[in-house]
Amino acid sequence: MPHVRADASTLVLLVRRPDAPELTEEEAAELQRRLTEQEHEVVRRLQETDRLKADLVATVSHELRSPLTTVLGVFGILRVRRRRLSPAERDGLVAMGIGQSQRLQRMIEQLLLAARFEQAERGATPFQTARVELDATELVDQAGAEARARHSGRAIAVETNGSLPVRVAQDVVVQVLGNLIDNAYEHGDGRGVEVSIRSQAREIVVAVADQGPGIPPEDVPHLFESFFKSGRSRARGRGGVGMGLPIAYENARLLGGRIAVDSEIGQGTTFTLHLPLHASVPPIDPANQEGP
Questions:
Q1: CA distance 108 to 100
Q2: Could you tell me where the DSSP H helices lie in 82-169?
Q3: Which domain, by its residues, includes 21?
Q4: Same structural domain, 101 and 175
Q5: Is 205 left (phi over 0), alpha (psi -120 to 50) or beta?
Q6: Residue 154 vs residues 43, 261, 289: alpha-carbon distances, Å
Q7: What CATH number corresponds to the domain at position 167?
Q8: Could you read off the pLDDT tens digit of each residue along the chain, which spans 292 residues?
């Protein structure tokens, strides 16, 4: 006879083969204990999934509401007081609205890209990247220019050891660098960002350093987890949905690279992108170039 156990969350059906030996009381108790543990684990995982979903909705809703509220406020002021505002005041409000709209757009793009990574991880949708040939310095310049526009033209210093031709997925690398530079701006206490580019062994290495307060050691292992914010970020009310670093990490992995982090309290933080050199094209020797 099958044995049926049921509770509010699970239904367990045990069927004993006719030729199976009878269980002793100890064996039956042990089997019962294991089944109960498995049931509790299933319930725990379902509850954890529900909690994570609720946290995700709350986090995203909060972070998206902030720039949206600013944009609506700008439009409200322009609508009611536009005739009483000076041209400089109107321009300032428009610039604020554009900046917050771009921030909102970037948050949504980060979330959509995270969804694409999840689908690719499950094999549902392959993640395609097109590679182009260009100089690594161009990638940093493009990422830096876009980041400066998002952060009111704040300073960025770039150090390079000359031309480093590479063949990479330009949009993907620019997004990785942009996320790292954004992170350095946001946590650098208003100071400049330093970026260095070099070749090392079989890699192209790009380091992005800030001069901020540093990251607590206990937070470092979690920096690339989705929606994670360090204790200092929460204490200072930093914005964002906590997806910049995880997406940069996944993008680097997609390209066969990696991101390392080195941080010291009071001394700042450096994120270093390593890309495999096999994705690079050989350097061009001007002496061997034919004339037009």
A1: 12
A2: 87-121, 136-150
A3: 1-128
A4: no
A5: beta
A6: 50, 23, 39
A7: 3.30.565.10
A8: 445 454 444 455 555 566 667 778 887 788 888 888 888 888 888 777 677 666 666 666 666 777 788 888 888 888 888 888 899 988 888 888 887 887 787 777 767 766 666 666 666 555 556 677 778 888 888 888 888 877 776 778 888 877 788 777 787 888 889 889 988 988 887 777 999 998 887 788 999 999 888 988 899 888 888 767 665 554 444 555 567 788 888 888 878 889 999 999 988 999 999 988 654 433 434 444 444 3
Separation of alpha carbons 225 and 261, rounded Å:
14
Question: Are 182 and 151 contacting, i.e. CB atoms less than 8 angstroms apart?
Answer: yes
Question: Is-contact 273 247, C-beta < 8 A?
Answer: no
Is the same domain home to 104 and 150? Answer: no
How many domains, the chain?
Answer: 2
- Are 79 and 215 members of one domain? no
Q: Which helix H or strand E contains 182, and what residues bound it? A: helix 170-187
Amino acid letter, residue 171: D
Beta bridge partners of 160: 197
108: tokens are 């949504």
Q: Are residues 119 and 174 in the same domain?
A: no
Last residue of a domain, one of 128, 156, 183: 128
Which residues touch 6 (CB under 8 Å, ≥6 apart)?
A: 12
Identify the H or E element spanning 181.
Answer: helix 170-187
Q: 24: which DSSP letter? A: P
The pTM (predicted TM-score) of the whole model is 0.60
Q: How far apart are CA 9 and CA 156, in angstroms?
A: 56
Cα distance between residue 176 and residue 247, in whole Å: 8
